[in-house]
Amino acid sequence: AETILFAAQTGLVGGSIEDATGKDVDPIYPFDLSVERVKATVKAAKSLDFHFMLTARAENFLCGKPDLADTIRRLEAYAEAGADVLFAPGLTTKEQIEAVVKAVAP
User: Fold this and answer.
1) Quick one: which of 63, 105, 64, 103 has its CA closest to 85?
2) CA 26 to CA 10: how far, in whole Å?
3) For 5-44, how does the pLDDT look when each residue is reduced to its tens digit (9 = 90+)?
4) In angstroms, rounded to a whole number, what is the distance separating the alpha carbons of residues 19 and 46?
5) DSSP state of 63
6) Cβ neighbours of residue 6 under 8 Å, at least 6 residues apart?
7) Chain centroid offset of residue 92 CA
8) Please, which contacts does 97-106 make with residues 24 or more away whose CB atoms are closer than 8 Å?
9) What is the CA radius of gyration of the chain?
10) Which of 28, 45, 78, 94 has CA 20 to 30 A from 68's CA?
């Protein structure tokens, strides 16, 4: 959340939050913590006096956890939390992309 506020102060109008930890042993934050992080970031973005475009990323496929069901679960929760854009980088098949789009499309 602080990073979004600092980014906005420098003139940025958008940014993203990932659920990757950066740790090889445990590469993805637990689901509940990931959702709380997105909620906090959305709250920070909405506190600004201009629209800050927030992307929430489900990093499973980039971090060695190709779990489509968990990726969709996370993206649905991030949408519910108020993220403007949802992104699941690393999907490799048309079927995976279709499943994600069908799950999160309005």
Assistant:
1) 105
2) 32
3) 999 999 999 999 999 999 999 999 999 999 999 999 999 9
4) 20
5) G
6) none
7) 18
8) 99/68, 99/72, 100/68, 100/71, 100/72, 100/75, 103/72, 103/75, 103/76, 104/72, 104/75, 104/76, 104/79
9) 14
10) 45
